[in-house]
Amino acid sequence: GLAPAVSSKALDEVAQLHADLMDKDSSADAGTCNMHSWGPDPNNQNVKACCFPSDFSNSPCMWDKPKEVTKSWSKPYTGSGFENAHWASAGVTAESAINGWKTSKGHNDVMLNIGMWADLNPWKACGVGIKGKYAFLWFG
């Protein structure tokens, strides 16, 4: 089995901020951009708006967010991060998000550190954020 997951304050902050921003304005998730995209954060100029397309051609859009969000902290997050995203028209619950990720092979592989994730970037900590129709589970 896997070791117990460790909660990260920094990754919790990134996940909750992403949920808050998407709940307020989901326009970042449009056209060729998907839910891993970010709009601007009016309260933190370090957080850059970016488009994360389905072909992963702008991966730093996601991977650099923990560094951007915590840049002004006394001990900023220094590693890369990646996320599972979930949306539900009726609103998200922790249960609906986990069930959605578990039934999606790609998302489940990330959570279990298996498949390409075991070699590419096995995560050591995680954080979660839920707001309205969105849930984000960050790993790093």
Report what the structure shows.
This protein is an alpha+beta fold. 34% of the residues lie in helices and 15% in strands. The chain contains six helices and four strands. A four-stranded mixed sheet has the order 1-3-4-2. A hairpin with a 2-residue loop joins strand 3 (125-131) and strand 4 (134-139). The longest helix has 16 residues, at 9-24. It starts with 5 loop residues before the first strand and ends with a strand. 31% of the residues are buried.
Structural class: alpha+beta
Order of helices and strands: EHHHEHHHEE
Intertermini distance:
19 Å
What integer is the average pLDDT?
92
**Number of DSSP helices?**
6
Strand order of the largest sheet: 1-3-4-2
> DSSP strand (E) fraction?
15-25%
Helix content: 25-40%
Q: Round the Cα radius of gyration to an integer and report it.
A: 14 Å
- Outline type: globular
Q: Which segments are poorly predicted (pLDDT under 50) over 5 or more consecutive residues?
A: none
Largest sheet: 4 strands, mixed
By DSSP, the count of extended strands is 4
